[in-house]
Amino acid sequence: MSTEKTHADREEGNGPVRVAIADDSALFREGLAMLLTAAGAEVVAQAGTADDLIRGLGRSRPDAVILDIRMPPTFTDEGLVAAERIRAEHRAIAVLVLSTYAETPYALRLLGDGGGGGLGYLLKDRVDDVGALQDALRRVIDGRLVLDEEIVAGLLAHRRRADELARLTPRERMVLAHMAEGRSNQGIGARLHLAPKTVENHIAGVFSKLGMPASADDNRRVLAVLTWLRNAAAGPGQPGAAAGTSAGTSSVITPGTHSTSGPGHQSGFSPFG
Q1: What is the pTM of this model?
Q2: What is the Rg, in whole angstroms, of the alpha carbon atoms belonging to the chain?
């Protein structure tokens, strides 16, 4: 079932913004509703689970939904699943997802749904700023993308790791994957039918391309494996895709957000577009 209200209906500007909220914490849910109401929004529905929220969309007809990522019954990705469903079945409704932590894998999944704008991902500790929350809602309702600065930082870090791993040859990526599994040089050679010297050359190539010169203080093998594992954790979870070839990495450059300026990404950056 598709929501009948269209983006053009919203642009008429008649009446307050209509918002539905889903969060398993009644205290947080009620507090957020009070904050929004005081700011002039109309809270048309509240729910303790994602399923309850979705079941009521036909009646409440909100302009936007605000929902937590982790909700009953498993407290893993119920809110994320609900966001994907809403964007697929109720395309006129904007979605603002909240999370206690900046979780890059969830952000990649959300951005990779092909739905374009009308989407936001903020940390919960941002919502006590009513002005910022209003601005975020306005932007997602206008069809724009709103990302928290910590989410953006995580996505950029994922992009850098993916780019680093993309420089490796297929054989070097395979050697690094076996390193991540804890295999010794001898074990890697046995698995890949390579001579010990060839394995050493591939590992040297991995270190060089990942920018890991020899150091008395750092274990380059551990650092290389960590780079691999971090990229794999932010990707779809398949060993072959962890080398920067996953489809999800293309979603890192997103519309409606300001670019950062190097490592000091927090200076002068607003999470609201």
Answers
A1: 0.58
A2: 22
